[in-house]
Amino acid sequence: MATQGSSIAKGAIENDAEVSSLGPDKSGFSSSNEESTPPVAIVPERTWKSYVWDTFDKSPEERYFLFKLDGVILTFASLGYFIKYLDQVNVNSAFVSGMKEDLGLYGNQLNYMVTCWTVGYVIGEIPSNMLLTKIRPSIWIPACEVVWSVLTILLAKCHTANQIYALRFFIGLAESAFYPGMQYVIGSWYRKDELAKRSCIFHASGSIGTMFSGYLMSAVYNLDSTSGFHGWQWLFIINTVISLPIAIAGFFFMPDVPEITRAWWLTKDEIALAKKRMELEGRANRGTYNKAKFHKIFTSWHIYALTLLYIFFNNGSGYGSQPAFALWLKSEGYSVTAINSYPTIASALAVIFTFIYAWTSDTIFRGARWPPMVFSGVVNIITNVSLAVWDIPLGWKWTCYLIGLIGGGISGLTFAWAHEICSDDNEERALVVASMNQMAYVVQAWLPLLIWQQVESPQYRKGFITMVFVATALIISAFTIRYLHHREVAKKRQEASIE
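User: That's the sequence. What structure does it adopt?
Assistant: Structure tokens below.
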């Protein structure tokens, strides 16, 4: 009888569409020992309908299960990330909409506000994701959401930069649980042919949050002086009004992970189905952290290569979290409404390209994650070279700013890749996902202070030039991981054939 490890290895091989020669076995099904559990295809069938949505080719039972799962997990994940990003970027919208003048802010204080948030975010990520392998996500994640929602409204009462620094640190600390935590949860429920789309839909909600923050600031600016609050103060107040109900709802809807779920909206048969699906993916159940586990994790290339990939992605898109587009518009004399509205076009394009990356990766590229990464890296090189030159035609400058955020859409693909590469070890998967996000923000804590200094806006020459090299490093990292993954899967195939 094969060991659990060899079974996991076989699952990883069978589901690595890019590197495996195994084609879809339309007659190959597996069911659990429970007779009531619906059969699950060992290798998901693919027809033209899968190019539209992956559930169309699955059994009615599995399709209904995924319909419910998507309805809850994707709704909660997207709304949660929406409010997280809304509360993360609102300080940028407030800064360019009167906060700077009202509080007498100067120099690089906006950079410091971003850095304080980043430091809190960095400190919390790995401990938070390690906790998720021991406690219920349905308790931990919503509790953190409630904390950051409440802290956000306190920003409206700040009178000094130091007060904002302190609150931003604790908001970042509370928010650190959500993105890597939800990526871990998503990776615990979905199969390879489903994962990229869900991860990218989840990530796209962040861009929607950025868009909405701009629209919201444009709207609440009209509330200036209402009840004694400035327009930018109303932004923080309304953010909390939106965020808090969503955070509380998480306590009632979050499904945890299949092996410990107690979700009231799933039947016993559907829970058994979820467990079987993850077994076929070779995705390991929860284990323990011990000396041997840490040795395995830190002697593997997984944590280092995937973390580097995400560092280059995260710090190579979005202008180091600086409102570069908005500050350029402000320098050109545009109105507050225009400054907050026009950059939302770039966010909308980022959402569209996020979906393009997800669908092409799952369908046209048959599970390969690297092609969209290479494309986004090339686009970043072109746009940042152009903006570094600066004296370019006005129309092309608008184009560069408008498409300058589309590289952000590959975030979900990087995490989907990490889930697939680390499938056979739950604790490694949780730690790697957290490490990717945490180390990216470690770099983001200091890099913008060097290359995206507010006093150099809007012509961030150092920033744009640095981004060219970061984009190049992203492309090299993607090809390197592809090579290492190919080699590893070939080794697992060989070991499985021997057994």
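The chain has one domain: 54-498.
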